[in-house]
Amino acid sequence: MCVRLFKLTSTVKVTLKGRGRLAAALVTLALAAFAFLQAGRLLVVEDPLKPATAVVVFGGGVPFRAMEASRVYKQGWAREVWLTKGGVFPADAVLANLEIERMPEYVYSRMVLERLGVPSAAIRVLPERTPNTAEEVRTVARGLDRLGGDRVILVTSSYHTRRVQSLWRKLIGDHPEAIVRYTPDDGFEAGRWWRDSGSAMRVTREWFSLLNGWFGFPMKHEQW
Q: Quick one: which of 177, 174, 194, 164 has its CA closest to 61?
């Protein structure tokens, strides 16, 4: 009788243990599925607009980021529009050696701004080279410091907003204040990011870069 009771108890324990492992696996799977589906949306943040010293067009996303910056400027939220220069990469050096001129992105952004009615006198190109987002953040903060500004509006693409906000808080802090905005015109669908390769690559890159920043930039890359 005692032997049978012991076997029954052992069987119940094994069954409960197996069910516990199954439940844990199902919960983990559900969380992983939720994280996958929400990965695009979690990258997108936006702050309410406030009056600022300048609205900054972050590099990339031509012409969409400049288009949004022109809207912000014409609504009266900023006195100037700033452009960052970007970096000089190996392909630029090769083209220069071949005597082939490559127009920098900020030149196109300036053309977009002027075409949309932003006065040339209100457009400022920041002098430093900015090969990556972290350097853009530092350059903008230095520009604000030179002018004694306490707030800036940063315009980028929707999938890039979380990283810009995170880098500003990590590298600069709460003062001067950065208001992060995104362009609605870039076509990124946060809720269906896995359906095309371009969006999938953007989301993967952004999460990898966010993790890299959170852990103190252990991986170095000239264009992050």
A: 164
The two tokens of residue 136 are 């853009």
- With beta carbons less than 8 A apart as the criterion, state whether 180 and 49 touch: no
pTM: 0.84
169 vs 214: which has the higher pLDDT:
169
pLDDT digits (tens, 9 = 90+) for 23-38: 777 777 777 777 788 9
Indicate the angle between helix axes 197-214 and 161-171, nearest 10 degrees: 10
User: Tokens 């004694």, residue?
Assistant: 148
Helix (DSSP H) and strand (DSSP E) numbers for the chain: 7, 5
Its sign, for the CA torsion 89, 98, 101, 187, is negative
Please, which residues have CB within 8 angstroms of residue 117's CB and are 6 or more apart in sequence? 70, 74
Structural contact between residues 132 and 90, judged by C-beta atoms closer than 8 angstroms: no
Domains of the chain: 41-214 (3.40.50.620)
- Helical ranges in 2-150 per DSSP H: 2-38, 64-74, 90-97, 105-115, 133-147
Measured CA to CA, the distance from residue 137 to residue 181 in angstroms comes to: 14
Take residue 150 and report the two structure tokens written for it: 């306490």
